[in-house]
């Protein structure tokens, strides 16, 4: 093995652990040393895939050839497993949400400091092309001054029927999907203070944990951001909707169907009113085609393998880690604020 090669072990080979297993196969210089999962059936699955199976977590940690671990267990187990791995001399990547509270996260950060081991979180949706495209539109001011951003994911099947429905395992949609969408927004609005948070959560299909939420985030520059996760939505609203003084950008779905529509030329004169059954309106009449420009989205391409490439370079000290712990901590605090606002039915000051 060349000096550049690294070995990773996966703890928890469920749905996501297996996604990582396949991704790792495609990354140059990274080899899967093996997996550990408490479930016999998942161990058997790993053997079928010709992957080495450790008999215990301790055995995995004792393997000196392993440089770093990926923790992909239910959310409540990230903390004890990550801390134990760092103490055993391994660098650690935790699945999201990193853990269940800011206090727990602090213990993990302390363990990273004490052991000098790299610790980061798989915030993979930073590589979503829909997000990167909207971030470009925002940063390059393609719509003029942006005053509102809406980011949503909608499904209609409730929460998947496993540990995600239980509070003690860190279930619920704020922790599951909120962590991605809030992380994306804080990156998009980088450098701008988030002043106020107002949120509501839903319990349509589950009383134990939230099965959706809506939060309104008011930033210091006046931009309002709506973030919403719904699991009882049989008709989806667009994934992204961004309003600027000169135009609107929309991304409808995961396939990046969307466009930018902006004002062109002079404001229309002689607007033809829309006649409705009970009245008429000029204000809400559609634009004439010659007064608007429709442009394609400036799609930003990405490669999710860059997540692991960055982790490996950061371990070698060749590159700064992309998913930084202060960012992870800010998102965790924001998720706690979302819950606090929903519980108190109040606007909460954030920064
Ligand atoms: P899952 O239930 O499919 O898999 C979890 C696995 O962990 C199971 O196989 C289980 O047997 C195993 N496990 C439980 N306790 C263990 C222990 N003590 N030691 C070793 N293995 C143990 O769940 P999932 O959907 O794969 O989610 C796992 C993690 O990945 C969660 O934190 C989840 O939030 C995250 N996730 C992230 C994304 C993403 O896009 N980043 C997507 C899905 C899930």
TrEMBL record:
Domain Gfo/Idh/MocA-like oxidoreductase N-terminal positions: 6-121
GFO/IDH/MocA-like oxidoreductase domain: residues covered: 131-249
Coiled-coil regions, chain positions: none
GO molecular function: nucleotide binding
A Pfam family hit: GFO_IDH_MocA
Name of protein: Oxidoreductase
């Amino acid at each position: 093995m060349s000096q550049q090669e690294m070995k990773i072990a996966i703890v928890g080979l469920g749905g996501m652990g297996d996604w990582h297993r396949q991704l790792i196969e495609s990354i140059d210089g990274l080899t899967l040393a093996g997996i550990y999962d408490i479930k016999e059936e998942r161990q058997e699955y790993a053997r079928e895939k010709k992957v080495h199976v450790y008999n215990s977590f301790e055995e995995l940690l004792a393997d000196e050839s392993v440089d770093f671990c990926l923790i992909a267990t239910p959310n409540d187990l990230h903390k004890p497993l990550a801390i134990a791995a760092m103490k055993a001399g391994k660098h650690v990547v935790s699945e999201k949400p990193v853990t269940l509270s800011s206090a727990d996260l602090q213990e993990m950060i302390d363990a990273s400091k004490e052991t000098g081991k790299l610790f980061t979180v798989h915030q993979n949706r930073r590589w979503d092309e829909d997000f990167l495209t909207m971030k470009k539109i925002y940063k390059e001011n393609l719509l003029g001054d942006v005053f509102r951003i809406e980011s949503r994911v909608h499904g209609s099947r409730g929460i998947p029927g496993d540990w995600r429905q239980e509070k003690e395992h860190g279930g619920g949609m704020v922790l599951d999907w909120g962590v991605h969408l809030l992380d994306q927004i804080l990156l998009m609005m980088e450098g701008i203070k988030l002043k106020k948070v107002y949120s509501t959560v839903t319990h349509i299909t589950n009383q134990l944990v939230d099965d959706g939420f809506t939060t309104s985030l008011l930033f210091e520059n006046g931009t309002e951001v709506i973030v919403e996760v719904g699991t009882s939505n049989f008709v989806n609203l667009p994934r992204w909707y961004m309003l600027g003084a000169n135009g609107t950008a929309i991304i409808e779905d995961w396939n990046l169907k969307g466009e930018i529509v902006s004002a062109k030329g002079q404001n229309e004169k002689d607007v033809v009113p829309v006649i409705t059954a009970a009245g008429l309106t000029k204000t809400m009449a559609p634009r004439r085609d010659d007064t608007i420009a429709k442009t394609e989205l400036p799609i930003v391409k990405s490669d999710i393998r860059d997540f692991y490439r960055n982790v490996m370079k950061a371990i070698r000290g060749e590159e700064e880690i992309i998913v930084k712990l202060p960012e992870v901590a800010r998102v965790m605090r924001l998720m706690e604020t979302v819950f606090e606002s929903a519980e108190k039915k109040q606007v909460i000051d954030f920064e």
